[in-house]
Amino acid sequence: MTVIVAKWTIDEYHRMIDAGILSDRKVELLKGEIVEMSAEGEPHAYCSHESADYLTNLLGKLPYVKPSLSHYPTTRNQNQILPLSNV
Known about the structure:
Elements: H1 10-18, E1 27-30, E2 33-36, H2 42-59, E3 63-67, E4 81-85
Antiparallel strand pairs: 1-2, 3-4
């Protein structure tokens, strides 16, 4: 028996989020597949914070570095560290 996995586009994924289909689940879209996300543990949070501090010190005032915080509700895939320019 051959199993065929349905691949989702980013637009389809966002439409599911907007429709509330994924509202009670922590998921992300990886290579077209909707994957359950594991909870962020203390080591991950520490490394994210330290990475953001390092980039801020390295790049100075060139970009604004915003670490994503796991305690904020999120419905869409987010970068762990988001460099923003012109802030």
